[in-house]
Amino acid sequence: MSKKDMEYLLKSFSKVSGLGIRMYRNGKAEYYYSPVHLYPDPAIAIQNIILASSHDAGVITTTLFQHYGYINLSTGETIVIGPTVAYEEDEKDFEYLFFLLDIPVDQRLEYLQTLCCSPEITAQHIAWLLSFFITAISGRTFDVERVHIDTKYGKAGNEIDKEHTREILKSYDDTEQSEIALTSYRFERLLNLYISTGQVDNLIELFEALPKVEAGKMASDRLRQYKNMFICSATTMSRAAIDGGLDPQSAFKLSDLYIQKCEILRDPNVIMMLMKEMATDMVERVRTINYGEVQNFKIFEACYYYVKKNLYSRIQVSDMAKELGISRSYLSTMFHERTGKTISQFITDQKIVEARRLLQFTDKSIVDIAIHLGFSSQSHFQNIFKKQVGQTPLEYKRENAI
Predict the structure, then answer these.
(1) Count of CB atoms within 10 A of residue 196's CB?
(2) Kind and range of the H or E run holding 77
(3) Are 93 and 105 in contact (CB under 8 A)?
(4) Pairing label, strands 67-72, 77-81
(5) pTM, two decimal places
(6) Chain segment 364-399, per-residue pLDDT in tens
(7) Does residue 267 contact residue 273 with C-beta atoms inside 8 Å?
(8) Could you give the C-alpha distances from 402 to 18, 100, 398, in angstroms and in order?
(9) Strands annotated E in 83-233
(10) Given this model, what pLDDT does residue 22 score?
């Protein structure tokens, strides 16, 4: 199989399963793709253990009770899928994971939110996925019983296992509804994260990659069920768009228009298509607020992620250009021509968006926020904030703090 065909197969498998997938050759990663866009790859923390395994296929469970599956191919490559969602949410284990992955403190919350949106799949389910993959690629049946399942859960493993068993028994009569609720919740969290940060491509890919999402029973009639689910989604999406900088009045008006459109529909499948359209519309509006109208979006997406990564420090345009591999003058000129803003203005805009979030959702002081976001002084931060928002940080906090 050619490298191109293999990568296509890996990506397709990832989209079907919802799990991240990577391929190693001679101990080095050659390919990585994840529907939930986890960078850096969380498998880095456990890859040495996986690569040392002599089994043809297996499942390894981390101390956070996340599952990874792996396949050692006869051609020398190792395929690794995962992680699943963490059952154990131990703060120290998460901190250790962040340390191993070298994730800056200011980026850990978002990384954790994304990590917690990984799919909930049992070790046994992963074993069947591995069996299917090997059978498909080799043309010979690979019995699921041959998949080695390592269930060393770590210090809290027995307690987690027992609790999980109790929960399964407790909800035995409504297992399907429980799974639906969990899947829907994680999908919604990731969807709203992408909307609030203007990640258009990731949101579109999310709809393509993750399994069909339902909701708990909200109506006896199937059509009404989908409409009620749509209304709930419209509400949460509009709030996510507001978090991303969209004007509240515009967000709620847009939500109302889509709800009105939904109410005249008679096909649940068409309602789901409309939901994707609504989400895409909102995330594109958030992106436009943050980027302006751009034609060559890839370079601006790279700028956005650079700024986001370095949001809590002094950002130099020359450093950004160097990392993107283009000249400072070319980057500055192109950015201004396409957006009508200078890169410095764009950086300031992003810092103010984050400042609004911190003022609204945290108890951090104004001086702490100013320092945290790399402003030269508290007074400089207050002046910039008032110029952009129309209120002082204190006035904004008093009116919007939750």
Answers:
(1) 22
(2) strand 77-81
(3) no
(4) antiparallel
(5) 0.49
(6) 889 989 988 888 889 999 999 999 888 999 998 888
(7) no
(8) 34, 34, 9
(9) 148-150
(10) 93
